[in-house]
Each structure stands twice: as structure tokens, then as C-alpha cells.
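Re-run requested by the PI after the first attempt was lost when the workstation crashed. Everything re-entered from the original request form. Ligand of interest: iron/sulfur cluster.
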Amino acid sequence: MEVEFNLENLKKCLCDCCPVQNKSRCVLDKMKIIQEISQDDLDSRIMIEEERIPALYCAEEKATITDLDSLQECQCDKCMVWKENNLFSGEPPGYFCRDGKAR
Ligand code: SF4
Ligand code: SF4
């Protein structure tokens, strides 16, 4: 079960508005990176910065974020990437930021 880390999927990803991570200082810092990346060169920058982009956790194994709020609800089951790639049948089925990429 491989989800591609690309601009199309990044636009569909709901992690940026997810309460599990949106109070994380680590994530807030990383969010600035997305704002700094201009639309013109996003596809090339995305290759360089994907490790630092706080989204699409189902596609990429990332460094563990330590200050997540796991009591909040993961948004993945509302996401088109999740539905299109049948991630509900994978392991883990959500909370990819905490539990690693979809397999
Ligand atoms: S399934 Fe979850 S991690 Fe993957 S793109 Fe959607 S919201 Fe982001
Ligand atoms: S993987 Fe799920 S829990 Fe983690 S930030 Fe994305 S939507 Fe929220």
C-alpha cells in the first residue's frame, strides 16, 4: 500500500487542519515551510522538503513528533487520499503521524 508524496495528494490531505497535531510547536514550525514554498516551484521543492512537510504522513515515514495530542480525532477517514487508496484496510488505518506510514 504505497501512497505517492505529490502535490495532488498534498492538496487533498487534511493533516494541516487536524487537532491531533495543530497545537504541536514542531508542526507549527514546519507549517511555515509550506507557506514559504511558492506555487511555481512546489513540485521540485516538495522533493527536497517532503521530510519537513507536516502532512501526508500516510505516504512518508517521518521523524516522530513528540507533542501530538492523541486524544483528538484523526481526520484521515474524511480524506480522499485515504478513500482512494483503501487505507482503511491497511495497517495502521490512521494516525499515520504517530504510528508510521500506511502499509
Ligand atoms: S490519509 Fe491522512 S495522512 Fe494521508 S493524506 Fe489523508 S489526511 Fe493526510
Ligand atoms: S495522520 Fe491523522 S492524526 Fe495525524 S495529523 Fe494526519 S489526520 Fe491528524
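Saved to the shared folder this time. Residues 7-99 form one domain.
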